[in-house]
Specification:
This protein is α+β, with helices and mostly antiparallel strands and 314 residues long. The chain is built from ten helices and eleven strands. The longest helix is centred in the C-terminal third of the chain and has 20 residues. The radius of gyration is 19 Å and the shape is globular. L-homoserine binds next to α5.
Length: 314
């Protein structure tokens, strides 16, 4: 058995507009790094460093990476092992870039690797979802799945869990705009609670149509159609955008500047625009100046859609 492994897992954008809880993409940066080994002394140990480390639970029973790793041990019959883990956070927590998903994916992958890879893709994903559940209150898979497998992952069913990996978008950049807002511990829980429980039939039709645009665009590698899909969230965006200053002004400006599509990243408050290569920097600068003029500090970052999920780091 290998004694120690270092892995890293990427930030992700969940939902991609209309695909609430069923689609997400891996980004090329930032990443979480984990160093993991197994012991037989009955004592789990956890150390966390890096961005936002002080906001993350150090209790092995509440920490998403540890819970995901423990779930792998249980599923694979390795309960006798203890987990020794060091996390270096690169994905900032609570901004909507799948921070707990990255840690969960990395924790599950590392433990499975140390055991000699007994679990298959779907089993591994289920274990990573357990980590997401302790962090966010719901075991959604649209961050952990792309964090594990890279590219763009579509969740075809939950029970049994079935996924399909779509080719990453290669010829576009993604600009992420992050407003600096006061965000509490329960960000994702609250962002889910405020969602409508029922939607009118016509809203359902519009949403399905957007999702069809998104998937057809991805399959055909047609950026304009992907963008129409991303921009057409008629259910989640109207509820969550109320908590993001100037959301619709930002969306309008991004599209006016040529972005293919614009929406909220995961549960927010970050937003993202899919843009032509070379235009993201200008779009990012313009959008944060709109936010600053309205009294909200913000920053932006440039990304691509990564083909890699969790990778072993030498
Ligand atoms: N699909 C989830 C949500 C992602 O939108 O609540 C949270 O990161």
């Amino acid at each position: 058995m290998v004694s120690k492994v270092r892995v890293s897992a990427p930030a992700t954008i969940a939902n991609l507009g209309p695909g609430f809880d069923i689609i997400g993409m891996a980004l090329n940066n930032p990443r979480d790094f984990l160093e993991v080994c197994l012991g037989e002394d009955g004592r789990d140990e956890l150390e966390i460093q890096g961005i936002g480390a002080n906001t993350i639970s150090k209790d092995p029973k509440r920490n998403s990476a540890m819970v995901a790793g423990r779930a792998v041990l249980e599923k694979a019959g390795g309960e006798k092992f203890s987990i020794k883990m060091r996390i270096v956070k690169g994905v900032p927590p609570r901004i909507g870039l799948g921070s707990s998903g990255a840690s969960s994916a990395a924790g599950a992958y590392a433990v499975n690797y140390l055991l000699g890879m007994p679990l298959n893709m779907e089993e591994l994903l289920q274990c990573a979802m357990e980590g997401e559940k302790v962090a966010c209150g719901s075991p959604h898979a649209d961050n952990v799945a792309p964090a594990l497998f890279g590219g763009i992952v579509l969740i075809l069913s939950f029970n049994p869990i079935r996924i399909i990996r779509l080719e990453p978008i290669t010829n576009a950049e993604i600009v992420v705009i992050t407003p600096k807002l006061e965000i509490g511990d329960e960000k994702t829980k609250i962002a889910r609670k405020i969602l409508p429980k029922n939607i009118p039939l016509q809203t359902m039709v519009n949403q399905v149509q957007s999702f069809a645009n998104l998937i057809i665009g991805l399959v055909r590698k047609d950026l304009s159609t992907i963008g129409i899909g991303i921009s057409g969230d008629f259910v989640i965006e109207p509820a969550r955008s109320k908590f993001i200053p100037k959301f619709y002004d930002l969306k309008e400006k991004a599209l006016e500047l040529g972005a293919y599509g614009f929406s909220i990243s995961g549960a927010g408050p970050s937003m993202f625009a899919l843009c032509k290569e070379g235009t993201g920097d200008y779009i990012g600068k313009t959008l944060i100046s709109i936010l600053k003029d309205a009294g909200t500090e913000a920053n932006y970052s440039l990304h691509t859609n990564s083909k890699d999920g969790v990778i072993i780091v030498p």
